[in-house]
Amino acid sequence: MLGQRLETLSSEASFNNDIGVPLTLLRLREAHEAAVLEVGSNHPGELQPLLQLIRPRYGVLTSIGREHLEFFGDLAGVIEEEGALAEALPPEGCLFVNGDIEGLEAIRARCRATVVTVGEGEDCDWQLTGTVLNNDGTTFELLSPKGDWSGAYRVNLLGHQNARNAALAIALAAELGLSREELDQGLQCCRPASMRMEMQTLGGVRIINDAYNSNPDSLLAALETMGLFPTKGKRLPFSATWPSLDKPASSPMLRWAGLRPGLAGWIGGRGKMGEQDGTAAQEEGLANVAAFDESMWLVKRWLLS
């Protein structure tokens, strides 16, 4: 989006760790007017040295989810790590943050910069409403504190979560002075990255591939998207197994209320967590349930029925 006006350097693929971030910074040239760098973490203390290298003025915190819990332990550990971005910003900077996340106030308390919230809550500075999915993208409405940017938008990505991500980008771009026309052009240029809510069609069957670095919260978002996606056919989810969540209370299947309508069945992962997911699916009334290793017969039956 910033590239519509500014000479912008951006991270390639998932160059977001202690190797990828320095490689991206080495591409920085005098002609660049802006740099957008993705920074990630899978264990405590990883973000701080990367942020010291980058010295960001603006930050965007898209979500805080139950990821890499084998190292973070629980959601509180993730919140503690993600808060490093808030601490890294200077007083004259600005943090754009998903206003619907758990731990928002803890993040805000660590930030010297201005905090701008974007989300569906009525108290968000930029409020996201009216999200609608279609075959190749998502439309949504934004209520902006800066009236010129209120209105309808469309992004070539699937899901509520990507509408929110787009809204965060819009809020930042508006802060940097881009026009509404430039925002729309930037959204039209946006395409899904490989295996991140990527739509594929094989033999007339549409597949939503969200397999890259999946976690329970991203699975729930993908399930929600599939449940809302317009189709006259059946829906069949495949889930992963997370060894770090080897306890029933953590299973995504036990937290998917409202996502059942239209699902033809459930194919779970391997091991104890896969068994727990399958049991939960059966308790929710799904007739076609199979473990991953036994799934081919279910897929064939489903496709032929």
Q: What is the gist of this entry?
A:
This protein is an alpha/beta fold and about 300 residues long. The protein is built from 10 helices and 12 strands. It has 2 domains: about 190 residues, Mur-like, catalytic domain (UDP-N-acetylmuramoyl-L-alanine:D-glutamate ligase), CATH 3.40.1190.10; about 110 residues, Protein-Tyrosine Phosphatase, Chain A (Alpha-Beta Complex), CATH 3.90.190.
List the main descriptive attributes of the protein structure presented here.
305 residues, alpha/beta, UDP-N-acetylmuramoyl-L-alanine:D-glutamate ligase, Protein-Tyrosine Phosphatase, Chain A, 2 domains, six-stranded mixed β-sheet, two-stranded parallel ribbon, 10 helices, 12 strands
SSE blueprint and pairings:
Blueprint: E1 8-10, H1 20-25, E2 34-36, H2 47-54, E3 58-61, H3 69-72, H4 75-88, E4 94-98, H5 104-109, E5 114-119, E6 126-134, E7 137-143, E8 151-155, H6 160-175, H7 180-189, E9 198-202, E10 205-209, H8 216-228, E11 265-268, H9 271-283, E12 288-291, H10 295-304
Parallel strand pairs: 1-2, 3-4, 4-5, 5-6, 11-12
Antiparallel strand pairs: 6-7, 7-8, 9-10
Helix pairs in contact: 2-4
Q: Looking at CATH, which topology of the largest domain would you report?
A: UDP-N-acetylmuramoyl-L-alanine:D-glutamate ligase
Biggest pleated sheet: 6 strands, mixed
CA-based shape = globular
- Sequence of secondary-structure elements: EHEHEHHEHEEEEHHEEHEHEH
Number of strands: 12
Q: Into how many domains do the coordinates divide?
A: 2
CATH architecture of the largest domain: 3-Layer(aba) Sandwich
